[in-house]
């Protein structure tokens, strides 16, 4: 198996919206996020997708909090730290984008607006272009976060406009209420519209997490799991950690003969070059 065939597992550790009331296991403080990252990395994750939180658990895009999170994770383990530019529903574009100036290895870039539960995840064309410009300036590898199929075509327009460089790396997110449903037929359709040469990860939300992850494994894609997207291990049973969800994907991959990429291999696979 060559490096490119190996499986990149992303652990979406906490998100912006998951609360301690919903699950006591979601990491909030920087030290908790770093510990969760190290555990997830030991279980097979090579990317951690992180959101910053205030100490009371509310979401923040404060650069100082992200700086602390990145420092602690980097000290704890070798993993790609992918920060969120999505933040939380209702945040301004200005507050969301500031984290890019920290020059993390990777950051999310959503290429369209979508209903997101009871709110609207707003991404105006000017915001998307600005975030893309900032990522290019700071040497940050974008992960194109798509919640519906039109966002894939939007990212191709950004490549044509010189705002993004192909090949792109996508995260296909399925199952957010208001966005593309978490069904395999929709995953197949999304994959069929990806630009030639792209790499892709799939993330199923809620009960779609396990079926979408399994389909991605079979289809040669990469997988994202974690408490941001799904707080349950099985019906009615909370996952006790991000690592538990990662470990299940690693076991499935083992059964299917798919080797797991380490962080260095993952950097090559998703197109991060010359940073470490
Ligand atoms: N919290 C969502 C509104 C991202 O991290 O880039 C957006 C989100 C996507 O989680
Ligand atoms: Zn996120």
Task: List the ions, cofactors and other small molecules found in this model.
Answer: (5S)-5-amino-3-OXO-hexanoic acid, zinc ion
User: Under CATH, the topology is which?
Assistant: TIM Barrel
Overall shape: it is: globular
Annotated CATH homologous superfamily = Aldolase class I
**Which structural class best describes the helix and strand composition?**
alpha/beta
Secondary-structure arrangement, i.e. CATH architecture: Alpha-Beta Barrel
Strand segment tally: 14
The whole-number mean of residue pLDDT values reads 97
Poorly predicted ranges? none
Largest sheet: 8 strands, parallel, barrel
Q: Strand order across the biggest sheet?
A: 1-2-5-6-9-10-11-12
CATH class: Alpha Beta
Quaternary structure classification: single chain
Q: What is the straight-line distance between the termini?
A: 24 Å
* Contiguous helical run count: 9
Strand content: 15-25%
Number of domains: 1
What is the string of SSEs from the N terminus onward?
EHEEEHEHEEEHEHEHEHEEEHH
Q: Work out the radius of gyration.
A: 17 Å
Helix content: 25-40%
Describe the fold and architecture.
The protein is an alpha/beta fold and 276 residues long. The chain has one domain (3-270): TIM Barrel (Alpha-Beta Barrel), CATH 3.20.20.70. Helices cover 36% and strands 20% of the residues. The chain has an 8-stranded parallel beta barrel, surrounded by 8 helices. The protein has a two-stranded antiparallel sheet with strand order 3-4. Strand 3 (52-53) and strand 4 (59-60) form a beta hairpin. It starts with 8 loop residues before the first strand and ends in a 6-residue tail after the last helix. The structure holds (5S)-5-amino-3-OXO-hexanoic acid and zinc ion. Residues 12, 15, 49, 51, 84, 86, 228 line the site of zinc ion (ZN).
């Amino acid at each position: 198996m060559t490096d490119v065939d190996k499986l990149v597992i992303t652990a979406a550790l906490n998100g912006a919206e998951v609360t301690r009331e919903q699950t006591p296991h979601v990491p909030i403080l920087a030290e908790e996020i770093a510990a969760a990252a190290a555990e997830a990395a030991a279980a097979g994750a090579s990317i951690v997708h992180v959101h910053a939180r205030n100490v009371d658990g509310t979401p923040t895009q404060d650069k100082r909090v992200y700086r602390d999170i990145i420092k602690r994770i980097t000290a704890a383990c070798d993993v790609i730290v992918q920060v969120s530019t999505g933040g939380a529903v209702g945040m301004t574009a200005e507050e969301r984008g500031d984290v890019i100036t920290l020059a993390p290895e990777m950051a999310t870039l959503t290429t369209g607006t979508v209903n997101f539960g009871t709110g609207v995840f707003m991404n105006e064309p000017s915001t998307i272009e600005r975030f893309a410009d900032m990522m290019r300036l700071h040497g940050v590898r974008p992960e194109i976060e798509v919640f519906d199929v039109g966002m894939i075509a939007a990212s191709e327009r950004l490549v044509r406009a010189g705002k993004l460089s192909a090949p792109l790396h996508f995260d296909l997110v399925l199952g957010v209420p208001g966005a593309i449903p978490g069904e395999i037929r929709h995953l197949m359709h999304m994959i069929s519209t990806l630009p030639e040469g792209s790499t892709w990860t799939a993330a199923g939300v809620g009960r779609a997490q396990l079926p979408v992850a399994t389909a991605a494994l079979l289809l040669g894609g990469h997988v994202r799991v974690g408490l941001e997207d799904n707080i349950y291990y099985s019906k009615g049973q909370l996952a006790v950690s991000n690592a538990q969800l990662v470990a299940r994907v690693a076991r499935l991959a083992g059964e299917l003969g798919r080797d797991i990429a380490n962080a260095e291999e993952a950097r090559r696979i998703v197109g991060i070059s010359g940073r470490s």
